[in-house]
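Budget justification note: compute hours in this period were largely spent on complex prediction jobs such as the one shown. Inputs:
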Amino acid sequence: MADPKNPIYHETLVGDKPKQWLLHGATKRLLSYYHYHSPKVGVVASYTPQERDVKDHFGIFRGVDQIESFAQASIASCGTYSQCKKQNCKPDDLSDDFVPVFTHVGSVTFHNYLQKGETFINIGIIKFYKFRQMICDGRIYRVPSGLDLDEYFKNFTDERLLAYDLPKDFKLIAELFDITGIAIKKEIFNSL
Amino acid sequence: MKEYTQEERQEILAELLEVLKTVRTIDPARLEGVTEETDFLADMNAPSTELINIAVKVEQKFDVEFEDDDIDRLGSKVKDVIDLIILAKERG
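Corresponding output:
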């Protein structure tokens, strides 16, 4: 019988904690919640920069950390979810055999910036998934302060996700293209 | 496993070249004089991330299916792709 506590039996990532799906330790995990997930289409996940994230950087959340947060939300979380489903195993089991590797960043355009305490969402759209490689495009938006994101995205749809159909008070921060990651077998990774 | 003749491998190479002409990151000029020893990364200057894209196109062109592990083991020379096509054909 399916164990309800085992995340691979969940229909989507929504309701799970990112730490259930990501190997990153607490200070390098730039993701707080999953709000929408369609396993073959994409994801919406949020993060709010902490003091440590902006320290020594003018109070601003760095662009590279935006890319990292986006990658964690999209290629890392969605890729791990899909591979666990395929192999019918838990994320921990997967990490026994594979190393998730961030292999490519296409182009990124920053339109605005994020400060400590400003919650943003990553909208990741899956363009390709095969041979344990996932490629995503997407956007980052700063969201209105105090908005209940779980409630807002409760009835979200794939069509709205693909169209970035969001209200005007969601501020576009960045556009990202060809963000690519792959799960590499440990023995191959160790021989690199 | 069936032994492929040099002529049969040349036929696969010719079809493979048709696939490579559709890969945006490969300069068509680098497809002149390609042999089985040509290296995608060193000789064609293809980004390493392009190998998976090439594998997907090859699957479609040759109507074969590769396993995840095939791609893990895949080398970067043309002969490696030809060997993989033959292996996948044999597996059926």
